[in-house]
Structures are given as C-alpha cells and as structure tokens.
C-alpha cells in the first residue's frame, strides 16, 4: 500500500508539466495568454487613465450639470473579464455613449465654467476664483496622459498639447502676456516639469480682491485672452476627443480580438481541462492497472519463490540421495579396490617372493660362479705363483747352467790350454817323428781331429750361452712385468742426530715376513669429547726400507730395472719426498743409485761382450728449475743455449737439443760427471733446509746395444730423477723468488701425479706437456717404460705432516697400474725394414 501511495504521488508528479515529462499543450496557451495579458494591460492602463481622466473631471456637479451619468463605481477590467465566459457580441453591453465624450465633456464643463466666469466677471469679479475653488479641482490637462494611447497607437499625429499654462493671477501682466505669446516647448508633453503645472496649489492664497478702480477693459482683455486660450484648449480637446474616439474604436476592435482570443483560450482551456481529466482518468486507470499488475507480480513472485524453494528442497534431496549413492558406490569401489589391491599385493608378494627366490637362486648361481671364478683366479694365481717359482727356479737353473757353462768354458779353456800344450807336445813329437813321417802324420791327423772336435764343442757351448742369455732376458722382463711396471718403494732415512728433534712413531715390517706395510702414528687429534687421539695410518708399498737399510740393499732392488734398461727398456727411477728426506743421498751420494747403476752397467756391458753384445753409453744431466731446462754438465752457464725437448715417436726416445752428452766409456767419467753436476746444480737456501735443492735433477743414461751374432739392437734409457722438495708452500714460508720456485715445484709435482693418474686410468690423453719434467720424461713414464718411485720419508716428528702427505701421494701412485712395458730391442733386419 505504501508503494502504491508513492506511485500515486509519482503519477501526480508525472502529470505536473513542470516536474515531469508529460507536458500539457500549454506553450501556445501561455504565449497567447502572455500576449493577451500584455494587450489587456495596455487597455486596462488606458482605461484606468481614462478613469483617471474621468476622476480628474473637476466636479460631480459639472458632470451632473452636463447630464452625463456618472461612471460605474466599479467596472471590471479586461483582464478580469478575460476569465469570464465569452458572451456573444450581441450580449456585450453597449458602450456608454457618454464615455466617448468624457474628455470632451470635461472640456465642455471647463468651458461652461469659463463662460460662467465670464458672466460672473460681468457681475462680480470674484466669480471666477470661487468657481475655481468650488470645483476643488482645477482642470488638469496634464492628466490626459497620452502615453498609453501613444504606445498603443504609435507615434502621435497630434501635436502635443503641452505647455498650457493656467493663468496665474499672482503673475504680473507682463509675465502673463509673455506666457501667452511664448510658444509651447517641444518636450512639454513628455515631461512633467513644474513649468507645465498650471494648477494653483490649494494652499495658495486666494487672489486678493482687486482694489476699486480696476481697469475693466484690461480685465476684459485678459478674459478675452483667457477665452482664446480656453478656446484653443477646447479645440485641442476636441482633437483629443477625436483621437480618443479613434483610440476607443481601436481599443474596441482590440477588445473584440482579445475577446475572440479569450474565447479560443477558454475553448483551449476547456479542451486542456478535458485532456487533463482524461489524463487523470488514464493515470488513475494506469495506477490501478499497475497496482493490479504489481499484485499479480507479487503473487507470481511468491508462487515462483514457493516453487523455487520447493525445487531447491527437491534438488537438495536429490543431491543428498546422489551423494549417498555416490558414497555408497565409492565405498563399494573402495572395498573392491582394496580387495583388488590386496589381491594384487598378494600376487606381487608372491611374485616378489618368487623373484627373490629366483634372485637368490641366481645369486647363489652367481655366487657359485664368483666362487668358481675366485677359485679359478686363485688357481691362476697359484699357477702364476708356481710359474713365478718355476721362473725363479729356471732363473736359478739358468744361472746355475750359466755358471756351469762358464765352468765349462773355463774347463774348455783349460782343456784348450791343455790342448795347446798337447799341441805343442804334438808338434814336438811331429818334429821328433818327422823322421818317421808316416807314423808322425797319422798321429798329427788324430790330433787335428780331436782339436776340431774340441773347438766345435766350444762353439756349441757359446751358442747355447747366447741363446740362454736371450731366454734369460725374456724371462727376466716377464718377471719384471709381473712385478708391475710402476713400483713404489718407501725409504725412511735415519735420524742424523738427537739435535734434529724427536722421532715420529713409525712401525716397519718385520724383515722375516714378506709384508711391505708401514704404519705411521699420525698427529694428535682432538675428538668432540675433548679426548686427544692419534690415529695409526697404515701405508702399503712394494717394499719398505727401514732407516738401517743401506744404499747397497736399495740398489739390489733397482738393479733389475737397470738390467731392463740394458735390455732395451726405458726406465725411470725417481725419488720423491720433502726437503731433507734423503733423496739426494739415495740418488747421487757416492754410493747412491746413479754411481751404482753406472758401475753395474759397466760390469754388465763387459760381461755381455762375451755374448757378442757391444754397448755404447751416453750420459747427460739436466735440471728443471722454474719450469726451465738447464744443462748441469755445461759449466759455462751460457743462457743463449736454450735446451729443447725432442721426441722420437718411432723409437720412443727423447733427446734434449743443445744439451751436453758425455760418452761414458769408463767408470771414472761417471764420477766426474756427477761432481760437475753437483757443482752446477741450483741450490738455494730456504728456511726448511739449508741445502735444499730447489730443482728437479734428471740423470739421463742412454744405452744402445748391438749383438753381432744375432744382429739384435736395443736402445734403452735409464732416467734417475732427484725431485725437488715436495714441502707445502705454507710450511716452507718462502717469499719472493723462493715462493715462485716453490710454486713451480709444487705445480710440476702435481703434474707428475696427474700423468701417473691418467696412465693408471688408461686415459687416451696423458697431460705430459703440462710441465717440463713430465714432458721430458714422456717416454719413460707409462707405455714403453718401467717406473720406480722412491718415497723418501723423514723419521722426525716435526716432519710428520709432510711425511703423511708424501705417503698419501705415493699410495695413490702405488694404486695405479700402468700398461705392459715393451722393449725396443729389434733385429737389424727389423730396423732396416722399418727404415
Ligand atoms: N739413509 C741415510 N743414511 C744416512 N744419512 C742420510 C740418509 N738419508 C739422508 N741422509 C742425510 O740426511 C741429510 C739430508 O739428506 P738429502 O740432502 O739427501 O735430502 P734431500 O731430500 O735430498 O734434500 P733436498 O731435496 O733438499 O736435496 C743429508 O745430510 C744426508 O747425508
């Protein structure tokens, strides 16, 4: 209901043309009304002016006198009458005939007054003022204000009647004369200046009674003049009357027009009223319809809402049912899936169990295979061991047979001597028997045959010896190969004096056992509980030499490698270890490896001559210092001669260009060479060791052997390397030039480790060229070579850290297996075919 009320008010507003879009057709009406009201106003003004004129008519009495009926006390204005229903023109009240003459009547009254005054003048001189005063009004010509008519009629054709002055009795005659003769000002009609006011103020004192003896003629003249003036005014009034009549006529026609307009407007108004009523009815109907529709809609809405609620409830119920159904299905599926899973699991379990069983069987089979393989390996190992033993026994047999052969040879030599002696005896006998020539010649032939026989035996023995030497070499190198082509041995030098400090706790293998393990008690370590522990670190090598072991025993171990060099292998023996660990002592001391090796080589060469082997031996001694090669045999220190490394890939040999090579044809020459090298070697003092060598020294011994009988030729190189100290940069506390040296040393040692590691991995690329040292030793490390590394260890507690580092490095090298070495030995035929 509240909505309805609001709507009703809205509808009301809608019908209000000012506030809504629904507009009444008022534009024309408003305009017409405005026009009409303007016109009506003018007419009303003019009428009011006319009334004013009427009211300004001097007296009622004058009007009465003139027989003119007084005007209606209250006449309706045109504007008032516009609202009244339109009357037919015939019903309209006829215009009052007097009204057209009002102005004229007024003027007539004035004229009567003036005539009376004239008559009165004739009788009494006071008549005029009295008549004037009796009216109470003076004729106010100014009241005939023409403005409204002027406005309605346009520019007036009538000359303005202004400037008409009421003669003033107080004025002097001359003045009056002047005022009569004076022309009216042009603007006096439009202006209401005081000059136009000819009326006498009511409070103006009445003219005094002229004294006796007044000139009557003069007075008559004056009256005549006034009469003329009055006449003139009368004429003017007549003109005015005519104009007014014309104006009245026009006004009437205007009134008619306006009346028509009013009628039209009334009609229109009625129409509009009807329209409005119709609209109002329409509006009411619409409101009712809307109300009805609204109620219908509300009813529908409620219905829909109920339906919707019902549907929602239905859907909820369905949803609940569906959800329950799905849950049930889900539960069923879940159960089924669980059952399936369980079954699958069981199956998988069974399968897995079966697989496990299979795997166990397989594993058992594999285990058996492995065991079998292991057994085979063990058998192989045993076979190898037995082979080795056989070889050893063969070797000892060979040595025995060699000794037997040597004995045989010596026996043969004695036999030969005996034969020689016998030969001499026989010759003596020949001389003796020359006399008996036949007997003598027979015995001579016998002797000769026996001699040939002996020589044949000797030759056979020699051939056998050479053959056996070849076989020995083969067997020996096979033995070497079985031992491994890179071997690592550890040597611990003795403590030189008690002043050196405390000795570290190092356990050496028992000489009786074949163990080659060294156990070093490590540095003190603090556990998380604050306990101080010292770990025992075991390191295993091919052999461990205790401090008491002398160079002689060391050399026994490496003599086989020296022999390999003589047999045409490239051999590299190097000493690795920290400064002061005994490298130089092992290598270059008077009974070190280098002198011993050369001595052994001399001995062997000498012996091999018997077996038709002739050897040449050349030695050179170079130093790698700050990654530069220096010739230790060149005392001149000529820096212009830069050493260059050249490799012969076919011969697997390395030569150093511009390097002095000494033919070592006697043992003395080796000693001299070593002394010279020792002198030239760069030795620099560091804080770690006063005599520490800051460079790697490499003694290169080239051995070329040829067998005149077998035409064999072999070319081997023995490299004996004394590496620079391996101490860490931090420990050495080196600075400046020393620091650079140490960095280069560490770098080249790291490169050596990298090369060995790459060889062990069987890498296709071995980084030989990363350092001068490895580049120089390219053909003596890996492939066609046999390598022995001595890791030198100091026994001192102070050097324990470096000792462990060195042992770890050596262990790494020891764990590396380098491929089989090959001899460069070839026959002359092979060599010629190659060339
Ligand atoms: N096995 C040994 N028996 C006796 N003395 C030894 C032994 N090993 C080394 N020495 C002595 O120890 C000292 C240091 O040895 P060596 O000069 O050989 O050390 P290094 O490792 O070669 O040092 P650097 O690399 O600085 O030359 C030398 O006086 C040497 O005589």
Automatic annotation (TrEMBL):
Residue stretches of biased makeup (Polar residues): 1-19, 45-58, 132-150, 165-180
UniProt keyword annotation of Cytoplasm present: yes
Nucleotide-binding found in the keyword field: yes
MF GO annotations: ATP binding; microtubule binding; minus-end-directed microtubule motor activity
Stretches the record annotates as Disordered: 1-24, 37-76, 122-217
Binding site for ATP: 577-584
SUPFAM superfamilies reported for this sequence: P-loop containing nucleoside triphosphate hydrolases
Subcellular location: Cytoplasm, Cytoskeleton
Keywords from the named record: ATP-binding, Coiled coil, Cytoplasm, Cytoskeleton, Microtubule, Motor protein, Nucleotide-binding
Coiled-coil region(s): 241-478
Entry superkingdom: Eukaryota
Residue stretches making up the Kinesin motor domain: 485-816
GO biological process, one term: microtubule-based movement
InterPro entries given in the database record: Kinesin-like_fam (IPR027640), Kinesin_motor_CS (IPR019821), Kinesin_motor_dom (IPR001752), Kinesin_motor_dom_sf (IPR036961), P-loop_NTPase (IPR027417)
Pfam families: Kinesin (PF00225)
Family the UniProt entry places it in: Belongs to the TRAFAC class myosin-kinesin ATPase superfamily. Kinesin family. KIN-14 subfamily.
PANTHER family: KINESIN-LIKE PROTEIN KLP-3, PROTEIN CLARET SEGREGATIONAL
Protein name according to UniProt: Kinesin-like protein
Gene source species: Neurospora tetraspora
């Amino acid at each position: 209901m509240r909505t309805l009320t609001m709507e009703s008010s809205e509808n009301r507003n809608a019908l209000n043309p000012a506030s809504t879009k629904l507009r009444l057709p008022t534009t024309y009406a408003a305009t017409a009304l405005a026009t009409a009201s303007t016109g009506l106003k003018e007419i009303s003004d003019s009428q009011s002016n006319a009334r004013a004129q009427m009211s300004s008519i001097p007296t009622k009495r004058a009007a009465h006198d003139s027989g003119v009926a007084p005007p209606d006390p209250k006449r309706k204005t045109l504007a008032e009458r516009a609202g009244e229903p339109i009357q037919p023109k015939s019903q309209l009240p006829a215009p009052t005939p007097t009204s057209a003459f009002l102005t004229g009547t007024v003027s007539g009254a004035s004229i009567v007054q003036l005539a009376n005054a004239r008559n009165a003048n004739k009788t009494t001189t006071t008549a005029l003022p009295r008549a004037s005063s009796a009216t109470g009004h003076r004729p106010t010509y100014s009241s005939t204000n023409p403005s409204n008519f002027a406005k309605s009629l346009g520019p007036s054709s009538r000359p303005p009647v202004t400037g008409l002055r009421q003669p003033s009795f107080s004025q002097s005659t001359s003045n009056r004369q002047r005022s009569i003769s004076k022309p009216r000002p042009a603007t006096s009609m439009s202006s209401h200046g005081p000059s136009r006011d000819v009326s006498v103020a009511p409070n103006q004192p009445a003219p005094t009674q002229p004294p006796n003896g007044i000139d009557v003629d003069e007075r008559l003249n004056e009256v005549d003049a006034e009469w003329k003036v009055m006449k003139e005014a009368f004429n003017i009034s007549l003109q005015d009357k005519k104009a007014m009549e014309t104006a009245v006529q026009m006004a009437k026609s205007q009134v008619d027009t306006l009346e028509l307009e009013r009628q039209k407007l009334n009609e229109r108004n009625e129409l509009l009223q009807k329209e409005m009523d119709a609209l109002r009815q329409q509006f009411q109907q619409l409101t009712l319809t809307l109300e009805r529709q609204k109620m219908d809609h509300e009813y529908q809405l409620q219905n829909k809402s109920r339906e919707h609620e019902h549907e929602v409830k239905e859907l909820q119920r369905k949803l609940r049912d569906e959800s329950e159904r799905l849950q049930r299905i889900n539960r069923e599926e879940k159960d089924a899936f669980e059952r399936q899973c369980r079954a699958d699991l069981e199956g998988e379990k069974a399968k897995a169990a079966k697989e496990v069983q299979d795997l166990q069987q397989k594993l058992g089979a594999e285990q058996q295979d492995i065991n079998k393989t292991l057994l085979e390996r063990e058998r192989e190992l045993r076979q190898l061991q037995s082979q080795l033993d056989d070889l050893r026994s063969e070797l000892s047999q060979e040595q025995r047979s060699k000794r037997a052969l040597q004995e045989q040879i010596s026996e043969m030599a004695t036999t030969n001597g005996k034969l020689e002696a016998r030969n001499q005896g026989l010759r003596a006998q020949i001389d003796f028997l020359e006399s008996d020539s036949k007997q003598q010649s027979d015995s001579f032939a016998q002797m000769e045959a026996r001699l040939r026989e002996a020589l044949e035996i000797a030759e056979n023995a020699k051939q056998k010896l050479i053959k056996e030497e070849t076989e020995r070499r083969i067997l020996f190198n096979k033995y070497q190969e079985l031992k491994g082509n890179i071997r690592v041995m550890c040597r611990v030098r003795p403590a030189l004096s008690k002043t050196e400090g405390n000795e570290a706790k190092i356990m050496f293998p028992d000489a009786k056992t074949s163990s080659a393990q060294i156990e070093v008690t490590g540095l003190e370590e603090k556990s998380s509980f604050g306990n101080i522990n010292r770990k025992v670190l075991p390191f295993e090598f091919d052999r461990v030499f205790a401090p008491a072991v002398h160079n002689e025993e060391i050399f026994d171990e490496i003599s086989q490698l020296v022999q390999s060099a003589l047999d045409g292998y490239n051999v590299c023996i190097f000493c690795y270890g920290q400064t002061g660990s005994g490298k130089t002592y092992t290598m270059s001391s008077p009974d070190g490896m280098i002198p011993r090796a050369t001595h052994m080589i001399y001995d062997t060469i000498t012996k091999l001559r018997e077996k038709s082997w002739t050897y040449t031996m050349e030695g050179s001694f170079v130093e790698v210092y700050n990654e530069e090669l220096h010739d230790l045999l060149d005392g001149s220190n000529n820096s212009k001669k830069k050493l260059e490394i050249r490799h012969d890939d076919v011969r697997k040999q390395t030569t150093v260009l511009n390097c002095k090579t000494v033919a070592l044809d006697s043992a003395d020459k080796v000693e001299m060479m070593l002394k010279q090298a020792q002198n030239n070697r760069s030795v620099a003092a560091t804080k770690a060791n006063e005599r520490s060598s800051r460079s790697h020294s490499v003694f290169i011994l080239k051995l070329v052997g040829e067998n005149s009988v077998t035409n064999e030729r072999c070319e081997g190189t023995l490299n004996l390397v004394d590496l620079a100290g391996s101490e860490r940069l931090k420990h050495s506390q080196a600075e400046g030039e020393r620091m650079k040296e140490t960095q280069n040393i560490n770098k080249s040692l790291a490169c050596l480790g990298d090369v060995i590691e790459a060889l062990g991995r069987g890498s296709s690329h071995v980084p030989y060229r990363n350092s001068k040292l490895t580049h120089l030793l390219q053909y003596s490390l890996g492939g066609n070579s046999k390598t022995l590394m001595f890791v030198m260890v100091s026994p001192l507690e102070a050097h324990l850290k470096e000792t462990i580092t060195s042992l770890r490095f050596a262990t790494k090298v020891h764990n590396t297996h380098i491929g089989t070495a090959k001899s460069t030995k070839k026959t002359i035929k092979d060599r010629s075919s190659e060339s």
